Structure formats: structure tokens, C-alpha cells
Amino acid sequence: MAAYGLIPLPSSVRPGSGEFTLTAGTALDAPPELAAVAAWLRSALGPATGCALLPSGAGIPGAAGDGAGADADADAERAAGGEGRIVLALGPGLAAEEFRLRITPSGVRITGGDAAGVFYGAQTLRLLLPPAALRRAPVAGGPLTVPATEIEDRPRYGWRGCMLDVARHFMPKADLLRFIDLLALHRLNVLHLHLTDDQGWRVEIAKYPRLTSVGGWRSSSMLGSRQHETFLPRPHGGFYTADDVREIVAYAAERYVTVVPEIDLPGHTQAAVAAYPWLAPEAVDRPDTADAPGVADGPDTADGAEPAGGAGPVGVRAAWGLSPHCLDVTSAAALDFCRDVLDEVMELFPGSHVGIGGDECPGDARSRAAFVTALAEHVTGRGRVPYAWDEILECGAVPGVTVAAWRGPDAAAVAARAGHQVVSCPDMSVYFDYRQSELPDEPIPVGPPLSLQDVHAFEPEPAGLTAGERSRVIGAQCNVWTEHMDTPRAVDYMVFPRLCAFAEVVWSADRAPYPDFARRLEAHTARLDALGVEYRPAAGPRPWQSRPDAPGWPISKARREAMVAEFGVGKHRG
User: Fold this and answer.
1) Exposure winner among 41, 71, 119, 358, fewest CB in 10 A?
2) Are 348 and 245 in contact (CB under 8 A)?
3) Helix (H) or strand (E) holding 231
4) Rounded to whole angstroms, what are the CA distances from 376 to 306, 354, 401, 421?
5) What's the start-to-end Cα distance of the chain, in Å?
């Protein structure tokens, strides 16, 4: 049985006898407060099964918390007995995101502590069906069946995230919506969108249109690792309009995924400086010699016409790596610009957290700390929670910030001990741009090897924390930096199946040994095949997944560990 190949591993699985058959006459009933989950389940199962899953019109025993204890159990038995239908319900006594899935030969009942819990139960039902049920049209003749079983499940963490960098390589909207579906399938509930960087600005800001008309594209990109200084002279760009963002946010919300925007400030802002040169200090108001040859560095236009890409004293950066061209952290105008941008972003993204970056900014440390603190206070003043990389720990006391701890376990420990809520994302455990093995044909191999087993072994809570400090680790996220992922196919290869292992880390409180996970993954990859996910095979890349044209720059784990140790996390500089 091996938990039916389910990933992530449920808390409890009790196999039953027989199976439930999904037919054209199968009904799906839900109370009004679960209408959205019911609509999603119909849309998810209908195309491949041919089943409309219409409501039966009958009452729903136990819906919306009707009954408790033994009475609720009796209601569940009646709902799953003799009616040949699927019933969705809310149940008292279940926590947020918790669910109970009961399948008998005569019916299915999914009870959740809230709508999200019911949704995760519905996703589990979907995974219990044959992989053909995940396709977009029928391919198998005859009815589909699901084994009789009872599954109880709940998440380990409330923040189960994935950071996707759409700044280095833009992901078109349709592909991003597909990516959200894959996150939801694996019960991740946060999509952290890295929307801006030196290499591109990807979100429309009405007050500053040049951020996308100029900052939204670059004339060329690096081919392979930056150490080789090779460029591909092909323009790259794209951005999400305000309506695109509204659609993405709503689509994600229907799948219980919160989109957390990140506007990386005040560093990683060369695209913004290219659009509005007055944002930069005069000391660096000059052409960027680190960019590719041939990038236009023409003068700014005074008549409002949009110049070619690379306009102004500095072009949108084509090279990877850290740019010296960032915002002037002593400028009141630059601070007002950031506040304006964040206000528009908060209008578009209604979630509790707003990313402000705070990482890898050159210049005077004291001025930078004051600037970042002002940004955090602005977000807090709007009733939101600022979310920043762990370099913010070097800005002194910035209260109310949730910290994305990427520079090793020490960063998470320092942040938790300082009283911050922490999202653990150490690079050597969850940076999915790192190569997946020592094989020479891994595409653009950079960083230390980060295998599937390495990800599965990740522990978000650093050793040595007190119980109170551990409670501040609200979850974890994997980070997908896309310098070397120029297509959604490349993202698929680098992310899957490592994201499957990560999902188990953040969802399953009782993590099974790796061999058990690997056995379940064999069944799960058939689901990924049905969904069209071009994951990395266990034996290594397929010939077309390698990139002999783009050389990498691999380093050893020991070398990376030494680099992380040199960071001096948590020390106030300046």
C-alpha cells in the first residue's frame, strides 16, 4: 500500500475494503460556505473523468458543523453510505487546514476544519484516483475507482512556501498559473514572487510607467554562469499588468495559496535606476561596465517618449551577480518613490505579508539601515507585515518584520532569538538553482550539489532553540532563483521532484525515512507525467535537458559552507 504513493505523507492512513467508483451519476454536495471548493473539484475532475459531479439536491448531514462527537461520526457514515455521492463538510473539533477523508464503496466524505482543509482533502481524493484523472481530457476507458480508506491529516507548519524569481527570467502568466496549481497539489500555501531585480521589473506601477516600459526588459542575458562572462544578444522581458496580478492573486486564493509580493529594496534595483536615473546616488550615475557590450546607454528623454532598452546613464543589467547601481539611501525622493511603489503593490496584493528585500545592498550601512527601517515602518503603518531577507538583522532592531532566513541555520536561530517570526530557507537545503548531482551533464551546474535526499533531510528548526524560540519558526520555503532557468521547462527540471521532498518536510509532522519517500515518489511521478511536468529523472537528465552550450560553475559543499560561515549573520555593521 505504501500510503498509496501519497506525497506529502498523511498523518494517518487506515485502508478499508473495496473501492468507490466514480461514474457519470456521482453527485457532489457541499454547503454554501464550501461552494468554491466544490466548484474547483468539479473543474479538476470533470475534464479527465467526464463526470459533471452535479449536486444531488439532497440535504447534507453534518454540514457546517451540524452535530459533534459521536453524532457527527454517525452523520459521516450516513453521508458515505448508500448514496454514491461525494460530500464536503466543515467539522467541529478540526483545526485550520486539517481534514478527514472517508471513502467507502458507497460514498466519499471530506470534512475539514475550514475550507482550506476541505480543499486539501479534495486534493488527496484526486491523488488517490488513477493518474489519468489528472489529465485534461479522458484517455482511459471505463469508470475510475478510488480505494476505500480513511485518511486524517494536518500540516506541520502554517507557512509552506516557494519563492519564484520572475525578475531574472520572466514567467508568462499562463505558466505561472500552472505553477500555482502544482504548488497547491503539493499543499504549499505561499507563493513568494520575487518581482524586481537588477535584470528586470515585472509588475506594473501606474505612477511610474517607465519601471516596465524601460525596466521591464534587457537587451541581452548571460549564457551560463557569470564567471564565463558570455552573453546571448537576445532581448528578454515581460511584466504583469495590474489586471494580470489581480487574476493571479484570485486564482491562487481559489487554491488556498497566498501570493506574497517582493519588491527588492534598496539594492537589486538597477532596473529601476535604468528607468528613473534620479533614484541613484550621483557617485554611481555612470554607464555600467559590468553589463554586456552593446547595451544602449543613451540619455534620458525630456519629452516623455520612451527610449530604447537600457536608457539613461545605466541600462537594465544583463549580467548576473550583484550590481553597484542601487537606490540612494540618503535621498528623501528615493524613499518617497519606494513608499509610492509599495502602496500600489499593497493595493494589488491583499495578503498579510509584503516583501521589501533588504538584502545585498552596497554603501553606507547606517544609511541603509535607516532606509530599510523606514520601509518596514511604512508597511507596518498600512496594517501589513514586512517580509525581508535576513540581512535586515544587520539593520539593528526592526520590530514586526518576518525574516526569510537564507544564510544557513544560524540566520534562523539569530532571528528567532531576536523575537522575529522566521521562515527558514537556508540555501544549502532549499535553493533549487543549485545543481542536483555531481553528474557532468546537469544543466548549467552551479553551486554545491543539492540532491533530492538532501532536501528531504532538511530541518527548518535549528538545533539549540528553546520551545518559545522554535514557535517563532512559522514555516519554510524553497527558493527558485532563475538566472539559469530561461523557460518553464527548465524550471520544471530544477524544481521537481525536489519540491515534492520539500512539501513533505513542511507538511508531514512525522517524516518517513527517505527510502519510504523514494518508494512513494515512484508512484507520484506517474502523476507528474500526467500533468506534463518535465521533472528530473532519478537517473539524471534526459539528453534534451542538458545544456552543453551553457557552462556552469560548480563548487563543493565544503566551499559553500565556508562562504556561509563568512557572512557573520546577525552582526550589526556600521
Assistant:
1) 71
2) yes
3) strand 231-232
4) 32, 9, 7, 14
5) 59
Angstrom distance (rounded) from CA 46 to CA 39: 10
Other C-beta atoms within 10 Å of 361: how many?
Answer: 23
Give the per-residue pLDDT at 82.
Answer: 38
Alpha-carbon span 531 to 197, nearest angstrom: 31
Cα radius of gyration (the chain): 25
Which cell numbers in the block locate residue 295?
547595451
134 near 126, Cβ under 8 Å? yes
Helical H segments across 465-513, by residue range: 467-470, 488-495, 498-507
Residue type for 353, please? H
Instruction: Round to whole Å and give the CA distance between 105 and 26.
Output: 12
Give the three-class secondary structure for 15.
strand
Distance, in Å, from the CA atom of 513 to the CA atom of 499, rounded to the nearest integer, reads 17
DSSP 431: B
Lowest-pLDDT choice from 309-313, 355-359, 366-370, 422-426: 309-313
- Helix (H) or strand (E) segment spanning residue 153: strand 144-153
Residue with cell 516557494: 162
Cis bond upstream, residue 131 (ω within 30): no
* This prediction's pTM: 0.91
Least confident of 72-76, 342-346, 540-544: 72-76
Identify the CA nearest to 395 among candidates 365, 415, 416. 365
CA 441 → CA 255, 430, 444, 486, distances in Å? 36, 21, 8, 17
- Inter-CA distances, 404 with 144, 258, 271, 466, 479, Å: 43, 16, 23, 19, 10
